[in-house]
Amino acid sequence: MRIQNAYHNNLKNISLNLPENQLIVVTGLSGSGKSSLAMGVIGNEGYRYFLESLPAYNQQNATAIPTALVDDITALPPVIKVEQSKRFQSINATFGTLAELTPIFRILFARYSTTENMSKSLFSFNHPKGACETCRGIGEAEYIDIAKLVGDENKTLREGAIVTTLPNGYIVYSQVTVEELNKVCEAHGFTVDIPWKDLTQEQKNVIWNGSDRLQVYYGKHSLESRLRWEGFKAKPREIGYYKG
């Protein structure tokens, strides 16, 4: 690639011959024109060449950039410009989406697929059709660490085997009291007074995953206790199936 008479920003009539297939480092003092050469001249001209290859409609909707101040550039290869500044805070933003490479690959995969009626949406992690069912396209999946949730296997549920159990018997996140949970357990043939280590895996699954055998009250305050609150209109606790 040959750059002839570049005078972009701090560059003063710089001419260069850059070899192909080589790792080239642009270094120098602050203000010497490193970014002007790499980003302002090579990067901007590469982007302009790329826009010229697109249909007119895409060119009209593309982001306008200033023309590089250079007399001539020959043998300019395809350019990918990666800036240091992080413009997007979205967790779904990747190098492929920011460089606009991902949409191109999606179209290629859909068109050249051996399976008929393939849509480009199937290759997008940001689309419900193509996103991973486990992580939903984020790349990370949340799960509960059972080993940390159960504090002491020798304790019963009533004694606080689950570490999120409050002193008043309310189980945080499950949003039910131990007494309400006991109703669910009894519907499955056991109680909250059995040590955790003695519960079967099926019984533990009821605790973790819930049950649809009967409905229980959610919340930690009964209607009677709510009636004693001044300044609030007391409402009965919500009722529903235990969700775990």
Automatic annotation (TrEMBL):
One of its GO terms (molecular function) is ATP binding. Its main location: cytoplasm. InterPro entries: P-loop_NTPase (IPR027417), UvrA_DNA-bd (IPR041552). Pfam families: UvrA_DNA-bind. GO terms for biological process: DNA repair. Keywords: ATP-binding, Cytoplasm, DNA damage, DNA excision, DNA repair, DNA-binding, Excision nuclease, Metal-binding, Nucleotide-binding, Repeat, Zinc, Zinc-finger. GO terms for cellular component: cytoplasm. Residues 145-219 form the UvrA DNA-binding domain. The keyword Zinc-finger applies. It is found in: Cytoplasm. Belongs to the ABC transporter superfamily. UvrA family. This is UvrABC system protein A. It comes from Zunongwangia profunda. The lineage of its organism: Bacteria, Pseudomonadati, Bacteroidota, Flavobacteriia, Flavobacteriales.
